[in-house]
């Protein structure tokens, strides 16, 4: 018999849920940020560079986890009575997908290690192993999200952040190497499973094939968004000199912060977006993300001196006049992310083509024009703004 599923959240409940998820996601992101700070202290620069690249590998491999989460949450939201069956399917598919992606990484580990100039392939293998619990975490989060179990979802996010900083730091204290750091990340990734694994289900898998296809489509969408939102981080190192590249990297700290700030809105709104008539939910969610982004951008412009301290201090003073642009970029990318989730909730994949085209155009502009820091970030701001407007128009049209 299926577990009872709470009814759709009322506005006051949604605000309360948003507050809890915001705090939990803050803990998760602070844990990841603190892990990077500790790693920068404990590892020599060359090892820290290798670890940064390995974390990038995990980030790309983790798109499957995000797709499992959105697919699971959508299916439970539109059919609450099938929550137990969806949870069972999500558990099996997440385990299989995680093992498959991890196996591919392990098989390609010598090649990837050579590209990343690593001394050993073992860190890449450990990245592959870490994908298994990370994908299971996607199933956990999707089950909790679809059933409006905000306390359980908060626990998943908190455990994720705590696991990374605690086990990652412990591993680096034992052995200050990229291999040990990734091993700590891998062990810490199991903490959400240990604490919240009761949400997972075994047996009773029905209709796995449509679920798998939806996960694959979702993975494609999340990969397209990942490419767009990280495009300038990669290309800045290609087109800018080392000094300007460092300035750009400092500015991107604010971009990521502005992108993170309203993410809780997308998480809480997603189950409502998945229902047939969700125009009001989409408008309110978009308004909320836009308000948070506008406040972040305005605060950065007004308090640019404080913002400069947050991104590294006086050694990055040259980028201070542009910091508000980096905050605006992150705010616009947050809007795009919400609209990607809205498209996944409606099972509309037109936005994927839009994301790839936008990435290609932005890359062409950045690579062919003689741009400096201001030119690159302005290109990304314009690109994100155009994508947000077009995606909104597409969403409004498909809901008519």
Describe this structure in words.
The chain is 82% helix and 0% strand. It is built from 17 helices and no strands. It is a multi-pass membrane protein. This is Polysaccharide biosynthesis protein. One of its GO terms (cellular component) is plasma membrane. InterPro entries: Poly_Biosynth_Transport (IPR050833).
Structure at a glance:
The protein is mostly helical and 400 residues long.
Write the layout of secondary structure elements.
Layout: H1 11-42, H2 45-61, H3 63-78, H4 83-107, H5 109-115, H6 122-146, H7 150-174, H8 178-188, H9 191-196, H10 208-239, H11 242-260, H12 263-273, H13 279-302, H14 304-311, H15 323-345, H16 350-368, H17 373-399
- Give the overall pLDDT as a whole number: 86
Low-pLDDT residue spans: 1-9
Oligomer: single chain
Helix content: over 70%
Q: What gyration radius follows from the Cα positions, in whole Å?
A: 21 Å
Q: Can you write the helix and strand succession as a string?
A: HHHHHHHHHHHHHHHHH
């Amino acid at each position: 018999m299926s577990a009872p599923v709470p009814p759709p959240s009322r506005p006051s409940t949604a605000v309360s849920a948003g507050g809890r998820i915001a705090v939990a996601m803050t803990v998760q992101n602070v844990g990841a940020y603190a892990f990077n700070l500790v790693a920068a202290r404990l590892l020599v620069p060359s090892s820290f560079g290798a670890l940064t690249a390995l974390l990038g590998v995990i980030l790309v491999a983790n798109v499957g986890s995000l797709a499992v989460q959105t697919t699971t949450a959508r299916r439970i939201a539109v059919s609450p009575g099938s929550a137990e069956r969806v949870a069972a399917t999500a558990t099996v598919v997440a385990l299989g997908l995680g093992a498959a992606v991890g196996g591919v990484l392990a098989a390609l580990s010598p090649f990837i290690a050579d590209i990343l100039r690593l001394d050993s392939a073992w860190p890449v293998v450990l990245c592959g192993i870490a994908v298994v619990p990370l994908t299971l975490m996607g199933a956990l989060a999707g089950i909790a999200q679809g059933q409006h179990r905000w306390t359980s979802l908060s626990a998943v996010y908190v455990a994720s952040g705590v696991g990374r900083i605690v086990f990652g730091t412990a591993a680096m204290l034992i052995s200050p190497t990229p291999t040990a750091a990734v091993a700590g990340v891998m062990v810490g990734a199991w903490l959400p499973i240990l604490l919240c694994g009761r949400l997972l289900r075994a047996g009773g898998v029905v209709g796995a094939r449509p679920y798998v296809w939806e996960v694959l489509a979702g993975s494609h969408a999340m990969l397209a968004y990942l490419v767009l939102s990280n495009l300038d981080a990669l290309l800045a190192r290609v087109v800018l000199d080392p000094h300007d590249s460092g300035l750009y990297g400092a500015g991107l700290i604010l971009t990521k912060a502005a992108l993170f700030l309203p993410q809780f809105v997308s998480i809480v709104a997603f189950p409502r977006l998945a229902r047939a008539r969700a125009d009001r939910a989409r408008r309110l969610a978009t308004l909320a993300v836009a308000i948070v982004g506008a406040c972040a951008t305005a605060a950065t412009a007004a308090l640019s001196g404080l913002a400069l301290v947050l991104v590294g201090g006086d050694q990055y003073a040259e980028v201070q006049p542009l910091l508000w642009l980096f905050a605006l970029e992150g705010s616009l990318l947050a809007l795009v992310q919400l609209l990607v989730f809205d498209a996944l909730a409606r099972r509309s994949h037109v936005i994927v083509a839009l994301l790839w085209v936008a990435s290609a155009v932005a890359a062409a502009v950045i690579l062919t024009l003689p741009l400096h820091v201001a030119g690159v970030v302005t290109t990304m701001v314009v690109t994100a703004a155009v994508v947000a407007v077009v995606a909104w128009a597409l969403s409004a049209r498909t809901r008519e």
